[in-house]
Specification:
heterodimer, A: three-stranded antiparallel beta sheet, B: mainly alpha
């Protein structure tokens, strides 16, 4: 099949589903349509990989009506944002909406650009990779959402059931993400960019209470600000150089593309929630968990780093690039530190998402080929493992009525399957030799080559990352003999997604040499001229360790579950045990000892560190603009 | 046998030598440790081979457990500790060695978490804080070697170290490493998660619920670990391995002396002082050496 038609299908088919989920009234019909339809999208993204192998292809779409429609939609979005600001009396948003509308009207209607994009759509291996993430994870997460949202409304009876709107937004989002990664025309890219911003806004505000409104508007103003920078970059570029395509911008090589590149990078920094704009992502955790998994960890925030990595060859590790790397370093350090002091599982995940994105931003900033290589690897590993973690937390949240890590004691006994999958996700996030650690080792080398201080940031941030993930892991792996199993009420929808994601997390780790040689290496070679090679011995060792762990672990668990050559005794609790969780203490009282994790908020407390991080990164943002403008 | 030869047979021989000899050397060091400690305290002390008697007795003890899975984690700890050391002596990527070492230590922590005893938990949490405290110093050590020698591979570092004096470039990093060794060797003032002095429950920490053969495994794993940690010291002195071994032994006895000379501190002091020292000695060394070598 023609790759072009697959792309168009991937963009338009979710749009069709979006309309369908808005129109179809009975829930059962919507489910009947949604479930199989989504797998078609996943299949479509796989087909794209199979049919093109990710070759670099460009497509011209000459259609005046389409251009006019995009223009009208952009003006419409600007007006919508202005209206949203007016109706909630947030005048800063009104201002941003007005600026956005004015810019579109001014640069596209009053003084329309003299040149147009040569190619509107394209694919290369990077966009195929992103499409696979969007298609497969989008499918799985929407599948999960079907089961989850039913439960959501049982738990939150005060929230108005707007599930049709919810479905509409998710499909619209998927469509616009596909559009974003396949757009070569910067104007189109901006259009899809703004749609994702609005989808994110409405999804964060789904609960429609004070807190979620505040978070939604915070996400809105920050991302609209990024969008304005994007739009300014596009306008500047086309007026100065007449370039309106992404690929031509990257290859231009003239100093005039520096300013637009930095403006686009700024938009990317906001979208990927780097400090000083990290607060929108932590606020976004009020959204239903599938939204956090899809938009705020695996796909939309990745659009930010996608754009950064695209402009990275232009910055070429120059002063502006180093500033971006410094913003990444600051964000990585502070976000990893703050995560130590958080006990809400979703907030821990949010901060660690920010930290991982920061690693990718560092790589994009230094702009060497091996940094870009590990950035792509990080994108894949993080997308899969993190969405698995979010979805596990979502399930636990409603079964234990809490998503606080302190309430996850004995999870392996109370919800064994979910806990096992959660631990797979956790291992994928930080445990050697799985996923993230492979890329961290490569990242470390790539960054140290530029300056050892980046490596130091990795060393300290990495230590704290290990700390906050392990204490979580430890809580879930506590064992006691008697506990009530709480797994009964999990819907089939959720099970399917969790199991597939857990398998996928492992599969991605095991098959990373293949993914790397098939997609990442050729892409890096085509952009930077040469691709890095991981040392053969290291590569073999990593795969061998992973494989042997995957064999040892299940065998060991089964063996230990059956083995009976020891005497089981109660734990030592400081007195005569009543049972395994209580003892007779002084004065003949029954005491229930209870342990809690350390949160070290004296050093890693959010209020202070957040301020520090915002200041430092704001400082580098100013320098970043300063060095290209002056 | 030429120890610098990177042929497959040589690598296999090195690994076998480590797997067989490390527990012997580690055990003897532990025995000397007790002997010298006793001498410092004006006692006679046990025979040098006492650690071997102790461990072999542990293996003959009755097996008891609090739950079915705790010992699996101990087994994994043991397995991966040997594996880490083997990787080091096989001469592969030092970062990989460090990461697998962390993995091994992590299994130990998870063993402590899995038993539902408050002392064990406290020990596990403290062990984690210790890991967070020393982890940056060890990563910085690897970066330091890389900046000077241009290689992350143990073999590569060793080879370049033979031509130049690594210690001359990395004295601060070496000092930071010695500092965290006190934590790693579980010596006072930083023996917070578990101590060799079994006079309080709190001090037994992590190992409270482990006994018999599995306590023996933990003990043996620590011997393996200690040899690996001392071998890292030798890497600084690879221009003359003999001097390296002498320095490593000296460092070990300095740790024994520290153990006897200082009282245990609070974990807060341990954590903050380790990070501060790592930054002051290690990070500054790294930056200086980066600019010196660029000249």
């Amino acid at each position: 099949m023609q790759p072009f038609y697959i792309i168009v299908f991937l963009i338009l088919f979710p749009l069709l589903l979006a309309v369908a989920s808005l129109v179809l009234r009975p829930l059962a019909v919507r489910r009947g349509v949604a479930a199989p339809a989504m797998w078609v999208i996943a299949a479509g993204s796989l087909l794209l990989l199979a049919s093109t192998g990710g070759d670099h292809l460009f497509f011209k779409v000459e259609n005046v009506i389409l251009e006019d429609f995009i223009l009208a939609a952009e003006v419409g979005m600007g007006l919508l944002i202005t209206y949203l600001g007016l109706s909630s009396k947030r005048y800063f948003i009104v201002l941003l909406g007005a600026v956005m509308t004015t810019m579109t009207v001014f640069f596209d209607i009053i003084y329309p650009p003299t040149t147009h994009a040569m190619h509107h759509l394209f694919i290369d291996r990077f966009s195929v990779l992103m499409a696979l993430i969007i298609g497969i994870l989008g499918t799985l997460i929407i599948n999960y959402a079907i089961g989850y949202m039913a439960e959501y409304h049982e738990h939150h009876r005060e929230v108005k059931d707007r599930r049709r709107f919810f479905g509409f937004l998710l499909y619209l989002f998927i469509s616009s993400m596909f559009g974003l990664v396949f757009s070569n025309s910067l104007k189109w890219m901006l259009f899809f960019w703004e749609i994702t911003t609005l989808c994110s806004f409405f999804l964060i505000g789904y609960r429609d209470d004070r807190q979620s409104q505040d978070s939604a508007f915070r996400a809105l103003w920050m991302n609209v600000l990024g969008g304005i920078a994007f739009s300014a970059g596009v306008a500047y570029l086309s007026s100065r150089t007449g370039i309106a395509d992404l690929d031509r911008m990257i290859l231009a090589g003239s100093p005039e593309v520096m300013i637009p590149a930095v403006l686009l990078a700024f938009a990317g920094l906001v979208k990927s929630a780097q400090m000083p704009f990290s607060t929108w992502l932590t606020g976004a955790m009020v959204a239903p968990t599938p939204v956090s998994a899809l938009l705020h960890s695996s796909t939309m925030v990745k659009a930010g780093v996608y754009l950064l990595l695209k402009v990275s060859p232009i910055l070429n590790g120059g002063p502006a690039g180093i500033c971006i790397a410094c913003i990444g370093a600051v964000t990585f350090l502070f976000a990893s530190f703050i995560a130590v002091s958080q006990s809400d599982a979703k907030r821990v995940l949010a901060y660690s998402t920010i930290a991982t994105l920061a690693l990718i931003v560092m790589c994009a900033g230094v702009g060497t080929y091996n940094a870009a290589w590990s950035a792509l690897l990080l994108i894949i590993f993080h997308a899969v493992a993190k969405s698995l973690l979010f979805l596990c937390v979502g399930v636990v949240d409603y079964k234990l009525d809490s998503r606080d890590i302190e309430d996850m004691d004995f999870l392996i006994v109370r919800m064994p399957k979910v806990a096992a999958m959660m631990n797979i996700g956790l291992a994928g996030m930080f445990l050697a030799p799985f996923g993230m650690v492979i890329s961290k080792a490569v990242t470390l080398k790539a960054l140290v080559d530029v300056h050892p201080l980046f490596g130091v940031a990795l060393a300290f941030g990495g230590g704290t990352t290990m700390f906050f993930y392990t204490k979580w892991m430890g809580k879930t792996l506590m064992v006691k003999a008697t506990a009530e199993n709480r797994e009964g009420a999990i819907s089939v929808w959720e099970w399917v997604t969790l199991v597939v994601l857990a398998v996928l997390t492992i599969a991605v780790c095991i098959s990373f040499p293949w993914i790397s040689s098939r997609l990442i290496d050729p892409y890096i070679a085509s952009v930077y001229g040469h691709a890095p090679t991981l040392e053969r011995s290291t590569l073999i060792l990593i795969v061998v360790i992973m494989a042997s762990l995957l064999v040892i672990f299940p065998i060991g668990v089964l063996y230990n579950a059956r083995r009976r050559d020891y005497r089981l005794v109660g734990p030592y609790l400081s007195g005569g045990n009543v049972n395994e969780t209580s003892f007779i203490g002084a004065m003949d009282r029954t005491v229930y000892p209870d342990t809690r994790n350390y949160y070290l908020s004296r050093w890693f407390g959010e209020p202070l560190l957040l301020k520090g991080g915002l200041l430092c990164s704001g400082f580098f943002i100013i320098i970043m603009f300063g060095v290209v403008i002056l | 046998m030429n120890p610098y030869d990177a042929s497959v047979t040589n690598i296999v021989l090195r690994v076998i030598a480590y797997v067989v000899l490390a527990p012997l050397a580690g055990g003897i060091l532990a025995g000397l440790d007790r002997k010298i400690s006793a001498w410092m305290q004006g006692r006679v002390g046990p025979p040098v081979l006492q650690p071997f008697y102790d461990v072999s007795k542990l293996f003959r003890k009755e097996k008891i457990a609090v739950n079915r899975f705790q010992n699996f984690f101990v087994f994994l700890f043991f397995l991966f500790m040997i594996f880490t050391g083997s990787l080091f002596f096989a001469g592969v990527n030092l970062l990989l060695v460090v990461f697998v070492l962390m993995l091994a230590s992590l299994f130990f922590v998870l063993a402590g978490f899995s038993v539902n005893s408050p002392y064990s938990h406290l020990g596990a949490e403290r062990e984690l804080i210790q890991m967070m405290a020393y982890d940056p110093a060890i990563i910085i050590l690897a970066i330091g070697f890389y900046v000077v020698t241009g290689s992350f591979n143990v073999d590569g570092i060793y080879q370049s170290g033979r031509e130049g004096y690594l210690i001359a470039y990395l004295p601060g990093i070496f000092a930071a490493y010695l500092y965290v060794l006190t934590i790693k060797f579980r010596k006072s003032p930083f023996d917070l998660s578990m101590s060799h002095h079994a006079h309080q429950e709190l001090v037994r920490g992590l190992t409270t619920e482990f006994s018999g053969p599995h306590l023996g495994l933990i003990e043996t794993a620590h011997w393996y670990e200690n040899i690996l940690l001392l071998a890292l010291i030798v890497l600084f002195f690879s221009f003359n391995p003999l001097i390296g071994v002498m320095v490593a032994l000296l460092a070990y006895f300095a740790e024994v002396f520290t153990d006897n000379a200082f009282a245990r501190v609070k974990w807060q002091v341990m954590f903050v002082s380790t990070w501060v020292f790592t930054i002051m000695a290690g990070v500054s060394n790294l930056i200086i050496v980066h600019y010196v070598l660029r000249r």
